[in-house]
Amino acid sequence: MIKIQELQKYFGQLHVLRGIDLQVEKGEVLSVIGASGSGKSTLLYCINGLEQIQGGTITVDGVKVHDKGTDLNNLRQSMGMVFQQWNSFPHLTAIENVALAPRIVKKKTKSEAIEIAKNQLVHVGLEDKLNVYPSELSGGQQQRLAIARALAMDPQYMLFDEATSALDPELVGEVLETMRLLAEEGMTMICVTHEMGFARDVSDRVAFFHDGIIEEIDTAKNIFENPKSELTKKFLSKVR
Amino acid sequence: MENQISFFSSFALNDIFFMAEAAYRTLLISIISISIGTFIGGIFGWMLFEGRIIAIILLGPILDVFRSVPLIIQLVLFYNFAPIVGFDLNAFESGLVILTLYTAALVANVVRGGIASVGQSMRRAARSLGMNYWQDLRYVVFPIGVRAIFPSWVGVALGVLKDSALVSVLGYVELLRASQILMTRTQEPLLIIAVAGAFYFALSYPISRFSARFERKWSQ
Ligand SMILES: Nc1ncnc2c1ncn2[C@@H]1O[C@H](COP(=O)(O)OP(=O)(O)OP(=O)(O)O)[C@@H](O)[C@H]1O
Ligand SMILES: [Mg+2]
């Protein structure tokens, strides 16, 4: 379970997250929507410990992410993260991209790591690209590679930061399909997304971010069919 | 006329060996200073990138001095001042120290740029997989950065190889100095300069070929 209480985050003077309270249960899929600059990416970085926080707490499976004693490198293994920029390692083939972290972080043997990598590449539908370098993959394939790379660490949670926004429109579908598959397998997911169709159809709940706070959070059905906040209504009318 | 012949003698096979030996000295001082300079420069570059306070206020300006003062001035100053502070260094050792620091200063800048070129987003991706700082540096930043800076580094190495000629002012008999000696004796400057040029080319060419091969391999 990911539990966020009273989260405050500043970049210098800029107050980016202004008191976030949020709880994500095992197996839940939460989509986070909201205007650009409202702090959605920052929230994910905070959960992953990639950003410091200035107030409140984030706990993941009972471990406080920002406590001094927390072994972040260990904790991060339980949270896979997929970025807008897919960041595949350009000097490694697809299978090496996926096998790297299991080998050096989890200290798997080379053959174990390769086995894990192969399975995950099959999982995301890249079984025919094992020995190909990222430069020869399309954006959609690279993003699926990034998903496989994160899954290879056997995470409990997956955090997606606009995994499809940098993709050409015709490539968005294959990545969303992979995410949908993960959701169906029961993965706990937090998805920052601009894809309203995905948010509505795949997520259990949807959180609408506005200006560093959660303006409204509810079931996907309620948010899309019966939003309570005027701001939510306005946002949804704009993106649809 | 008779007299002159006894002073000057023409270019002989022996002289080629003399120049080959000098070329070896050029290669020796270059290889050592490029290797050590690259290593130190790598560490300096990393310090500059990480921007620790000491690195910015101390290291930066010092490296700027080495990069901007002409090498020949550095060599002469160091050779003459080192004994005063208690280092009794010969021409080779003085040349080596200065060439190494000069290389390090140039490489530091290249390396800083190389690390920066990897980008925060790539590094966050590596960290998000559970890699610690050093694993990220070793398995992600290093291989990507090396490929990015390799052409610049080859430029620095070739430059140092040629600039090592300046150590001749201290009396170290490397290729250029050997050529001067032979020119005085044979009075055949054009021939000797051409031979010296051929030697420099023979030293640099393998590096260029070698690096071109690497770049081709990496660009696939
Ligand atoms: N490293 C940083 N330093 C300073 N300010 C930052 C930094 N990262 C983000 N910000 C600022 O924090 C605010 C929230 O940024 P964030 O990236 O979380 O927004 P977002 O909701 O993800 O927007 P988008 O939909 O454009 O990705 C923005 O005003 C942004 O400019
Ligand atoms: Mg964002």
Number of beta-strand segments of chain B: 0
Listing every helix as H and every strand as E from the N terminus to the C terminus, the arrangement of chain B reads: HHHHHHHHH
Known CATH architecture of chain B: Orthogonal Bundle
The helix tally of chain A amounts to 9
Low-confidence stretches of chain A: none
Q: What structural class do the secondary elements of chain A suggest?
A: alpha/beta
User: In CATH terms, what is the fold-level topology of chain B?
Assistant: MetI-like fold
Radius of gyration of chain B: 21 Å
CATH class of chain B: Mainly Alpha
Rounded average pLDDT of chain B? 90
The number of helical elements of chain B comes to 9
**Helix-residue proportion of chain B:** over 70%
Would you give an account of this structure?
The complex is a heterodimer of chains A (240) and B (220). The two termini of chain A are 32 Å apart. In chain A, strand 1 and strand 2 form a beta hairpin. Chain A has nine helices and ten strands. By secondary structure, chain A is of the alpha/beta class. Chain A has a six-stranded mixed sheet with strand order 6-7-8-3-9-10, sandwiched between helices. In chain A, helix 3 packs across helix 4 (110-123). The longest helix of chain B has 38 residues, at 13-50. In chain B, helix 2 runs antiparallel to helix 3 and helix 7 packs antiparallel against helix 9. Chain B has a single domain, classed as MetI-like (MetI-like fold, Orthogonal Bundle). In chain B, 83% of the residues lie in helices and 0% in strands. The radius of gyration of chain B is 21 Å and the shape is flat. Chain B is an all-alpha fold. At the A-B interface, helix 2, strand 6, helix 3 and helix 5 of A face helix 6 and helix 7 of B.
